[in-house]
Amino acid sequence: MSFLVRHAVILLLLSFVIPISAAGQDQFNVTLRLDFSSVDALIELSEGRIANVDRVAELKGNQIAAATSALLARERYSTKDFARELDRFRNGSSLANDIFGLSSSSVYLKQIKTLVQESKRRNLDRRVLSTIAPFFPQKAKINAFIPVYFVALGNENYPLFADSNRFDNLRCDLRFVDLLNDLKYKWEERS
Fold first, then answer.
1. 3-state SS, residue 29
2. Strands, DSSP E only, in the chain?
3. Tell me, what DSSP letter sits at residue 135?
4. Distances from the Cα of 28 to the Cα of 25, 31, 69, 147, angstroms
5. What pLDDT, on the 0 to 100 scale, is given for residue 191?
6. Interatomic CA distance for residues 39 and 13, integer angstroms
7. Which residues contact residue 164 at a Cβ distance below 8 angstroms, ignoring those fewer than 6 apart?
């Protein structure tokens, strides 16, 4: 579970398109398009099964995660810089600044693969939709198509986790304390 927290954004998968209507809500027509292409490509790149870093860098989910990571790190973003970091990642070289969290992706590759397999197997989209549907009024007419991307990269923003009151209920959990200490170390190392 801490891996999910470490990578605030694990977006979603390989074009599953499954509409769902919640019980008693015939007007609730929301479809999640789960796109696993970004995470799958990063896994394949790390395992040497693909060599084209530009292809991995240009995938929509990776573009969103990389641009968000650069924003959180207060760094300028370019696809070329991201592709250059992916090339270093692929070759096992040390990463320049690692604002994209690729070293964590390398360390947690086995867990990422397990998480992706489980997400594909368990119909995650249906579970998400059945969870959110009851929050909408029964008579509301809702038609939406939402792309969701799974990625295996992202900036680990220590101040966000350290300062947000949203995590107050976790502060007594030793796993969260360990996570914060790890994030703080990485954050200060980059600064």
1. strand
2. 16-22, 25-35, 142-149
3. G
4. 5, 10, 33, 17
5. 62
6. 8
7. none
User: What length does the chain have?
Assistant: 191
Tens of pLDDT along the chain (191 residues) come to 334 333 333 333 323 333 444 445 677 888 889 999 999 999 999 998 988 999 999 999 999 999 998 887 778 889 999 999 999 988 888 766 788 888 888 888 898 999 899 888 887 788 888 888 888 888 888 888 889 999 998 877 777 778 878 778 888 888 888 888 888 887 777 66
Show the DSSP H helices in 17-95 as ranges: 37-46, 53-58, 60-72, 79-91
CB-side exposure of 83: number of CA atoms within 13 Å?
A: 12
Compute the distance between CA of residue 158 and CA of residue 148 in angstroms, rounded to an integer: 25
Q: List phi, psi (to 5°) of 146.
A: -120, 115
CA distance 126 to 121: 12
Assigned token pair, 75: 């760094």
What residue has token string 């980059």?
A: 190
Residue with tokens 């801490």: 2
Residue type, 149: Y
Tokens of residue 45, six digits = 């790149």
Q: What is the pLDDT of residue 19?
A: 43
Contact 21, 31 (CB under 8 A): no
